[in-house]
Amino acid sequence: MSSLLSTDSQGVPLGQRKQYKIVEINDAGNAPSGSRRAQSPTRRISNEVKTSQYTWWSFVVVFLYLTFQKTANLYFLLVGIFQIIPSVSPTDGVPLQFTPLAIIIVIDAIFAGYEDYKRHMADDLTISAKTRVFNRQLREFEEVEWRELKVGDIVVANHEILAADIMILAVIPAEGSRSGGNMGLCYVETKNLDGETNHKLREAPQPTRNMFTNEHEAGKLRNTSYMYGLVANTGTDSKIMMSSGDEFPVKVSSIDEMTNKQVIVWWSSFW
To answer: Rounded to an integer, what distance in angstroms lies between the CA atom of residue 216 and that of residue 19?
Structure first.
């Protein structure tokens, strides 16, 4: 997959040049022995998605970092540190403040770990779902997991959630569908993308016109027998992941924001 710009001979300024994307159809027949899928440059982006915040090896560091973003926790940590210093300690060097702080942190860690575990399970369930990809060597469609999809794969869908951004190639309408027997029309449900429940009409484009205007991920095919499509974007390059913003956004409640400001104001009043 690559991007091409207009040539200088056209006299178009660099900032105004049109961009094009080239997607090569993958050929499973070129795969090395023992490998079902070919590894071409278009296969660099994995279709695995991650909505979890932590991994088993980063949990402690990331969790503690996020925990002490709350100024109240940071304040009590500093109080505990000062309690260790004999010259300024009102507790004879015993960090009594660490006990309640540790209890709060451990409870928060248990809840955070459990919630993130559920996100890991949901991610694994999503990328383990099955779809059908055309194998050019066997000249037939075969089932693969969503995580195995690569840019340039040809897929067939039938009343199912689309596993990546798909460019419609051909549509076989269902009997009695609203497309009226047109071989290039289908309806797509995009509520997972934009929240709209109305079915959107999509048409297979001409080979040299608007080739990438009909890309959908997290859409569901409706009123169609089946549709052939070309995978245009996968994983972090897909629309649903690009629109989701940060890889793992940290949500801060309005109460936490207010508490942080109050602690800072209260603390600064002592200096």
So the answer is: 20
Q: How many CB atoms lie within 10 A of CB 43?
A: 20
Q: Which CATH class is domain 2-44+128-242?
A: mainly beta
Instruction: Please give the full DSSP string across 12-74, using - where no structure is assigned.
Output: --GGG---EEE-PPP-GGGPPTT-SS---GGG-S-------S--TTTHHHHHHHHHTTSHHHH
201 contacts: CB under 8 Å, gap ≥ 6: 179, 185, 186, 187
Instruction: Return the DSSP state at 161.
Output: B
Cβ-proximal residues to 125 (8 Å cutoff; 6+ apart), any chain:
none
Locate all alpha helices (DSSP H) within 68-140, ordered by sequence: 71-84, 98-127
Secondary-structure percent of the chain, ordered helix, strand, coil, rounded to 5: 35, 20, 45
Q: Per residue of the chain (271 residues), what is the pLDDT tens digit?
A: 333 333 344 444 444 555 666 777 766 544 444 444 444 444 567 888 888 889 889 999 999 999 998 888 888 898 899 899 888 888 888 888 999 999 999 999 999 999 999 999 999 998 888 888 888 888 888 888 888 888 888 887 777 788 888 888 777 665 555 544 455 677 777 777 777 777 777 777 666 333 433 444 555 555 556 777 888 888 888 877 777 655 555 677 778 778 878 878 877 776 6
In the chain, what are the domain boundaries?
A: 2-44+128-242, 45-127
Instruction: For residue 138, give Cα distances in angstroms to 27, 28, 39, 141.
Output: 11, 9, 17, 8
Q: 28 with 43: CB under 8 angstroms?
A: no
